[in-house]
Design brief:
The complex is a heterooctamer, with two copies of chain A, two copies of chain C, two copies of chain E and two copies of chain G.
Chain A lengths: L1 E5 L9 H5 L5 E3 L12 E3 L12 H5 L5 E6 L11
Antiparallel strand pairs in A: 1-4, 2-3
Chain C lengths: L1 E9 L4 H14 L3 E6 L9 E9 L13 E4 L2 H7 L8 E5 L14 E5 L1 H9 L5 H13 L4 H11 L8 H22 L1
Parallel strand pairs in C: 1-4, 4-5, 5-6
Antiparallel strand pairs in C: 1-3, 2-3
Chain E lengths: L2 E5 L18 H15 L5 E5 L7 H4 L3 E3 L6 H11 L4 E7 H7 L1 H9 L5 E6 L2 E2 L5 E2 L18 H4 L5 H6 L4 E8 L3 H19 L4 E7 L3 H4 L3 H15 L3 E5 L7
Parallel strand pairs in E: 2-3, 2-4, 4-5, 5-9, 8-9
Antiparallel strand pairs in E: 6-7, 8-10
The chains are: A alpha+beta, C alpha/beta, E alpha/beta, G alpha/beta.
The complex binds thiamine diphosphate (2 copies), iron/sulfur cluster (6 copies) and magnesium ion (2 copies).
Amino acid sequence: MGKILIDAEKCKGCSYCVLSCPRQLIAIDGERINMLGYNPARFNGDSGEKCTGCALCAEMCPEVVIEVYRDKKKQKEKGGAG
Amino acid sequence: MGKILIDAEKCKGCSYCVLSCPRQLIAIDGERINMLGYNPARFNGDSGEKCTGCALCAEMCPEVVIEVYRDKKKQKEKGGAG
Amino acid sequence: MYYDVILSGFGGQGILLIGDLLAHAAMLEGLHVTWMPSYGVEMRGGAANCTVVISSEKIGSPITDEPCGLIAMSNPSLLKFQGKVKKEGLMVVNTSLVDSQLIERGDLGTVPLPANEIAYQEVGEHKMANIVMLGAFLAGSGVVSMEKVEETVDSFFEGGKRKNIPLMVKALRRGFQHQKEGMEHAG
Amino acid sequence: MYYDVILSGFGGQGILLIGDLLAHAAMLEGLHVTWMPSYGVEMRGGAANCTVVISSEKIGSPITDEPCGLIAMSNPSLLKFQGKVKKEGLMVVNTSLVDSQLIERGDLGTVPLPANEIAYQEVGEHKMANIVMLGAFLAGSGVVSMEKVEETVDSFFEGGKRKNIPLMVKALRRGFQHQKEGMEHAG
Amino acid sequence: MKLQKVFARPASLAEISFHFCPGCHHGIVHRLLGEAIDTYGIREKTIGVPGVGCCVFLYDYLDIDVCEAPHGRAPAVATGFKRVLPRNVVFTYQGDGDLGAIGMSEVVHTANRGENITVIFVNNGVYGMTGGQMAPTTLLGQQTTTSAFGRDFHRDGYPIRMTEMLATLEGVAFAARVTLHNAAGVKKARKAVMKAFEMQLNNMGFTFVEFISACPTNWRLSPEEATARIDDEVLPYYPLGIYKERKSPDYL
Amino acid sequence: MKLQKVFARPASLAEISFHFCPGCHHGIVHRLLGEAIDTYGIREKTIGVPGVGCCVFLYDYLDIDVCEAPHGRAPAVATGFKRVLPRNVVFTYQGDGDLGAIGMSEVVHTANRGENITVIFVNNGVYGMTGGQMAPTTLLGQQTTTSAFGRDFHRDGYPIRMTEMLATLEGVAFAARVTLHNAAGVKKARKAVMKAFEMQLNNMGFTFVEFISACPTNWRLSPEEATARIDDEVLPYYPLGIYKERKSPDYL
Amino acid sequence: MSERQMMKGSVALAEGAVAAGCRYYFGYPITPQNDIPEYLSVRLAEVDGVFIQAESEIASINMLLGAAAAGARAMTSSSGPGISLMQEGLSYMAGSELPGLAVNITRIGPGLGGIAPSQGDYFQATRGGGHGDYHVIVLAPNSVQEMYDLTIKAFELADKYRNPALILADAILGQMKEPVLLHDAPQRVPGKEWALKGAPVGLPTKRIKSLYLKDDEMEKHNWHLFRKYSQMREEDTMVEADLDEGMEVLLVSFGSCSRMVQSAVRMARDRGLKVGYIRPISLFPFPGDALREASEKAGKVLTVEMNTGQMWDDVRLNLAPGCSARLLARPGGGIPTPGQILEEAEKMIKAGDEVAKSIC
Amino acid sequence: MSERQMMKGSVALAEGAVAAGCRYYFGYPITPQNDIPEYLSVRLAEVDGVFIQAESEIASINMLLGAAAAGARAMTSSSGPGISLMQEGLSYMAGSELPGLAVNITRIGPGLGGIAPSQGDYFQATRGGGHGDYHVIVLAPNSVQEMYDLTIKAFELADKYRNPALILADAILGQMKEPVLLHDAPQRVPGKEWALKGAPVGLPTKRIKSLYLKDDEMEKHNWHLFRKYSQMREEDTMVEADLDEGMEVLLVSFGSCSRMVQSAVRMARDRGLKVGYIRPISLFPFPGDALREASEKAGKVLTVEMNTGQMWDDVRLNLAPGCSARLLARPGGGIPTPGQILEEAEKMIKAGDEVAKSIC
Ligand SMILES: Cc1ncc(C[n+]2csc(CCOP(=O)(O)OP(=O)(O)O)c2C)c(N)n1
Ligand SMILES: Cc1ncc(C[n+]2csc(CCOP(=O)(O)OP(=O)(O)O)c2C)c(N)n1
Ligand code: SF4
Ligand code: SF4
Ligand code: SF4
Ligand code: SF4
Ligand code: SF4
Ligand code: SF4
Ligand SMILES: [Mg+2]
Ligand SMILES: [Mg+2]
C-alpha cells in the first residue's frame, strides 16, 4: 500500500529511518559508499506489500531525502506536508 | 523613657520620621532652612516622657541622622545595630 | 557688539529659564546667540548655571572665562564667579539670598538687589525673583531691549503658563527700574 | 636543507597525525620544523590537510604554494594540490582511495601506493594506511631518517595507544619498502 | 493500486544537502520550518534570522529572505524587522549557546516585550559549531571539551531550563518544549511550530519553541546512541510540554 | 532614668552626607548594609561592587573595599573577586536599570552558577541617575521621561519581576523581595540582608534581595506621596516575600 | 518652519533625523544624550514612527541592524561606554553593508569617566573600534544648526554607501541652544531594492550577511568595502576653512573644540596676526587633500583637540611635506580656552621651522 | 621542561600564562581560539587554578576586571567579534588601571567574516577600540616560541604599568606547531598593594574606579595615563630587525605575516638583493624610533600587512623624512606569498625615490 524512495546519494547513513520504521523495511547498506562518504540507507520493502506509507521514516530523516508514496484512499489520514 | 537627636543640618526634610513616629513627636520645621537648603525635622518630645525610644523614626531616616536613646532596661528588646 | 553673561544659582531658582528668555530675545533682535547650561554630574540637585553669549558676529566659544556680566542668585555662585567678571563688568546679585558681605569686586557696576522681596512685595509672587533679576540685568547691560524681552515672554509660554505673563512683565519692569535707580544712586 | 610537504585527505584518515609524526621526527633530528593544519570553516567534516616544513635554517613561512612533496589520500586532495607540487617533486598517492587516472603529473616521482590494501593485507590493520603512506614518503623524500621516525613513534604515544607501536613500525617499513621498490621499478 | 506522493521535501526547502553531521536534528527543524511556511503560504512574507551556530547557514537552505544576526542577538535583530514590517512573519533560529548564554538578555527582553515574533530554539546541550564546548544547557556530569571532568555545579552552575524561565514572563504568548528523537516527537514538534506561526499571524505576541536535539558529533555518540541518551538522560531534566499558551486549544 | 544610645549610624557608614535626593530609599539600603557588616564583623573582608546608577558613589559611603563595575556587569566583576578571594564577602549593589535591563544576562548567569555572592537590588521603577527614564520594572501606565504617554505593553513590554524569575533558577539559594516604605518593612528588609550575608558566610550560594524603593524625584512625588504610591500601586504588582530559600528558618 | 528657532543641539539632531525620514529609534539611556531619546519618544509618536527603549546598547544596535536590513531609515544614540558596546554591531553593519545612524554624544573616558565635553572617542569613531577592516562614516558638527544639517547628511551618505554613519558630538553641542533654521521640505527616503521585506512570488529571495567562507570571497568583499572607502574620500569629504592670505600658522580642530579655535582666530586677527583655520567636518573620510593644501600655504600647523592627541595622527598623515606641526591637547573635560590657543599660535609663529611634534 | 617540545601556538600561549603565574581564566568559546580554553580547562585544574566558561565575552572581560582588582594574574581570550564586545571592559580596565591579559586570535572582519588568518584588528588593538583616551599594551608574536614568551612578557608589562595587555595573533600562530623551549622557573607574581582583598583593621579601605567627577580630576587622570603610555614608548618597545648593510629596501611587517616576509628576505638575498627587515613586536608601544632609524638607512620602505593597511598609518607616522613608502596589503584571509613580496620589493628597488603611497 506504500513505498518510499531514498535519495541514497544524499543520505548520511544516520539510521534514524531504520530505527523508526515499524515494519523494519529499511537497512543501512554496508556495502555501498556514496559520494558523501557514507553507507546509505536502503528500502527493502519494494517486493512485498509491507510498507504502509506511514512516513515515520521520512519524519525522522534529518536530510529530508525520503519520499513516501501511499495508496490514494489512505491519504487523507495523513497531515503534514504532503 | 526615650529621646532622639536629629542632626538637623544634615536632614533633608523628607518627613519619613514624622510619618513613622507612632507618638507624633516629630515635625518639619517650616521656619528653619539648613545648610543643605531644606526645612529639617524637629523632635518635639523633649519636654514630656512620650518618646518610647522605639526607633521607628530612625529606621526610616534615609539620611541616617537620627540617634535614639532609651531607658536601659528596655534596651534588650531592640535588635538591630545599636 | 559682543556680550557674554553667566547666570547662576541653585537648581530650581529658574536660572536656566531667564537665560533662555535672554537668548531668545537676542535672537529676535537678529543677533547671534548661544545658550549653554553647565553640564552637571550624573546626579540630582546642586548648582545650576548657564552662559549666554550675544554678538553681532558669528559666535565662537559658547562658554567664557571672563564674562562681561554675572547674575548671581546664591552664595556659592557668587563666590565661584565674581572673580572672573571682566574689569568694569556688570554684576547683578540677589541680596535676598546672597550675603552682601561676600561682594568683593568694587570695580563692577554692582547693584545689590533684594529680588525675592521685590518679587514678593512689589510683584506679588515670590517665584518671580529670577525675572526681577533678568529685568535688572537688562537695565544694567542694555544688551537686549526691554521690548524684545517682553515680546519673548509673550511668545515663549503656552497654555496654562500664559496666565503668568502679566506678572512676568511686571517683574521684569520692577527689576529694570530698581537697577536703573540703584545705578543712578551709585553714579 | 629545505623541504616542505602537503599531507591531505579526508577528515578521519589520520592525516594530521602523520604530519605530526614527521614534524616531531624532524625536531629530534635537530632541524627546524613547522606543522600547520588547514584552518577549516566553523563546521564539521570535509577535507583535512596540513603542511610540514623542515629546514636546517630558521623557517619563514609555515605554508607553501609550491611544495616539494605531496601525500594525497583522497580524490579532492589530489585534484587540489597536484598542480602545485614543485617540478620533479614527490607525490605519494593512496591508490586504494584515489582514482589513478586522476594522476596527471608525469614529472613527479610518483609511486601509486595501494596503502589500504597494504595496511590490511601486509600489516594486518586497515587503519594503518596513513602510516604506510608516511613510510613511503620517507623513502621517497629521504628528508628524515626512518630511525628518527621510529623513535618518534615510540615516544609519541602513551597508555593504551602504545600497544599499536609495533604495528605502526611495521606499517612504516612496509610503506618504505613499497616506495623504494616502486621507484627502482620506475627508474 | 495507484500510489501518491504523501511526503516530500517542502517547496521552500532548497534542493541542496545540509552541512550538518549525520544524525543531527537541525535538519528536521529546517524541514518543519519549511513545512510551516508552505502550509501557511507565507514564503513571500517570512523573514528568518538565524543566530550563529550550526544553524548559521539557514540562508542556504530555506528559500526565504534571511538576515544574519551577530551571535546571540537574533531577537534584537528580529525586533528591528518586526517593528518596520509588522505584517511580515519574523522568526529567529538559535542554538543553546546563542540563546541561552550570550543571547540571554536579548531573548528575555524580547519575550518580555511580547514582541510578535517566533523564536526557534535548538537545545543540543553543547556548542556544536565551535567544537563541543559546554553550553548553559549541558547536563550535570556531562563531559565536553571545556568540562573534561564533567559539568560541576560548583564551577559551572546548573543547566538552564529556558522554556520554564521564559514562561514566567508576562509577554510570552506560547512556550513549549518538544523533541525530535522519535517520529511521535517530531509530529508534536510540527504542531508546535505551526501553532507558534499561527499565533504570530494572529498577532498574539512572543512565541517560543524549544527543540531537544542531538549533536552526535560532540556528544561523541552514534546517532542511535544519541537517540537513547535523549530518552535516558536529557528528557528527565527537560520535561516536554506546553509551558504557556495564551489561549488553549488542546493540540499537543 | 539613664538613657543609652540604642540606634546610631553604623560604624562602617562614613560620616558624610549622601548625595541622594530627599526621601530616596537608597540611604536606608546603605545603612542596612553597614549594619550587616558591623553585626557580622566583616568590614575587613567585605568587598562591595556597586553598579552604575544612583548607587555608584557607594565607595564614598561604606568604609569597605569597593570596586566600580561597568553598568550592569557587577555580578561578573563580583564573580571575578569571589573566585580569587573565596573567603571574602562579596556583594553587588544594583539598580533596576543596571540589573534588570543591561545587566540581565550577568545576573541570570551568576545566579544560575550559584555564585556565592549577595546581590542587593534596588527597584525604584525608573532610571534614577540618568533622569527618570522608563526601567524594565516601570509599571504599566506609569509616565516617565521616555514613556510620556505611560508605559504601554505593546511598545514597551511588561514590568519584569526579577525575584520571581531568578527564583526559578537552581543556583539561587535565597531570593526575597522587601520594602522600605515603612518601619516594619525596613525591619524585615534588615533581616533579609542579614540572612543573605549569613548564607554567603555559610557558602550556601547565590543570595538576592530586591528592595522596593522610592525615587520621589523621578516619580515627581513628595516623599510622602511616594510612600503612598508604594502601597497603592507598586506592592500589588510586586508582592513581598521570600521566593526561595534553600533551608528555611522562618524569620520574616 | 522657516523661522529661526532657539533649540538644543540634541533636539536639533532629533529634528534632523525626523526631517531625514527616520521613523525608528532604538536606544538605551545614558548621560549626556538623554535629550535625544526623551524628545524622540514623543516626537516619533507624532509622525507614526516607532520609539523603542532597548534593554541595552547591544540590543539597540542590533535592532537598528534589523530595521536597516528591512529598508528603513533608523537610528540609535548613546555615549562613550554605550558606543563601545555597539562596536560588534557596527562591524556587522559595515560588513553586511547596512546603512543606519549611530550618534555619540561623548563623555570622558576611559571607563565610566565623566560627562563633561571630550573628544576622546575620535580613534574609536574613525578607525572602527570593532574588529576587521571597515570604517564608519563620521561627521562632526560644531553648531546646533549642524546638529540638524549633518544628521540629514549622515542618513544620505549612509544610504549612498550602504554603510553605517556616526555623528560625533559632545555635551557642549548636545546641550547648547542656538538659533536653527529647519528645512521646509522633509527628505524622501530612497527605495532600497536590496532590503529584506519578503520576496514576492517570482522574485528571488535575498540574503543580508557578512559571513563569507569560500576561498577568496572574503578577500574580494574586503576589497569591495575598501573601494567604497576610497570613493568616500574622493566624493564626500567635508571641510570648513577660513584661510588667510599669507597665514603664518594654520589651526586645525573639529567639533565643539573648533568653536574655541574660532574665537582664538578672531582674537588673533584683532591683533593683526595672520592665522588660518581649517575644520574637518567629515572625520571619516578625512579631508586630507584640503588639509595638505592649506598646510602647504601655512607651513606651520597647530592642532587643537580635547583629548591627548587623536586627530593628531590624521593631521600628521596629511601634512604637506616639510610642515612643522604642534598639538595643543586637553583631555578629560578640559577645554582649551581661546586665550590658550592664541598663545600657542603666537609661539608657533615666533618659533623656527623645525618640526615641533611636542605636545603641550 | 628544558627540552624542545612540538606544541601548538595556542597551547604554548596557555603554557606561557601558567608559567607567568596566571591561575584564572574567564572566556567564551569562539573559533579559532578554542584550543586555549579547552587546554586551560584541564591545565588550570592541575595547578589549583580556576577556569570559568563565562556566558559571554562581556561577562569574561568583567570577571577578568574583578579578578585583576583582587590582585590576581588573570586572563581571557577570544577572537574578533568577541574582542569587540570587550571594548567597554578594556576601557574600564585601562581607566581603573587594572592589569590583565586579553588574547585575540583574530578572524576576518568586519562582521562574522571568517576564521582564516587576518590582521584586520590592528587598529582596534592599538588605538583602543573602546571609548576615551587610553591604550592597551599590544604584543604580536610571530612564532610558537613567542606565543609562549610574549604571554609571560605581557603579564609582566601589564603589572608594571597597571594596564591591560593584549596578545594579537591569528589562526596561523594559534594552530601551527613548532618546537618550543619552556622556561624552567615559573614566574613569581608580584605583590599588589593597591589590590582589593578587604582592608585589615587599622588600614584604610581602598577603591578601584574610573569615575572622576570633580573639576580637573579627570583631566589629571588622563594626563597620568598619558605619561604611562609615554613611559612605555621609552622603556618597553620591542622589535626584531635584520638589517643589511646598504639595503635598498626595508620590509616592515608584524605577526604571522612577518614569516612570509622572512621567506621573501631569504629569497631576495639568495638573488643578491640588499633588503632589510624589521618587525614591530610591541604594536603598542610602537617601536617608532627603531623604524625611523632603519628607514633612514634604507630610504625605501615596503609595508606588508594582512589587511587593507592599518599598521601602515604607524609606519608612515614614523618614517625618516624623505623615505618612500609602499604597502602590500591582502585582507580577508589572503596571505601575501613570499613570491609576491619579493616582486614588490624588487619593484621598489628599481623604482625612483618618489613617495609611492600606492596600495597594491
Ligand atoms: C560574539 C561571538 N562570540 C562567539 C562566537 C563563536 N560561536 C559561534 S557559534 C557558537 C556557539 C554555537 O553553539 P549553539 O548556539 O549551541 O549552536 P549549535 O552549533 O550547538 O547548534 C559560538 C560560541 C561568535 N561567532 N561570536
Ligand atoms: C554602558 C552604559 N550604558 C548606560 C549608562 C548610563 N546609565 C548610568 S546609570 C543608568 C541607569 C540607572 O538606573 P538604575 O540602575 O535603575 O539605578 P537608579 O539610579 O535608579 O538607582 C544608566 C542607564 C552607563 N553608565 N553605561
Ligand atoms: S513509510 Fe512507514 S512502513 Fe514505509 S518504510 Fe517508511 S516507516 Fe516503514
Ligand atoms: S534517516 Fe535519512 S539520512 Fe538517515 S539513514 Fe535514513 S535516509 Fe539516510
Ligand atoms: S523613637 Fe519612637 S517614639 Fe521616639 S521619636 Fe522616634 S519614633 Fe517617636
Ligand atoms: S527622616 Fe531623616 S532626613 Fe527625613 S525628615 Fe526625618 S530626620 Fe530628616
Ligand atoms: S556539530 Fe552537532 S549541531 Fe553541529 S551539525 Fe554536527 S551534529 Fe549538528
Ligand atoms: S534620582 Fe531617585 S534614586 Fe536617584 S538619588 Fe534621587 S530619589 Fe534617589
Ligand atoms: Mg547547541
Ligand atoms: Mg532605578
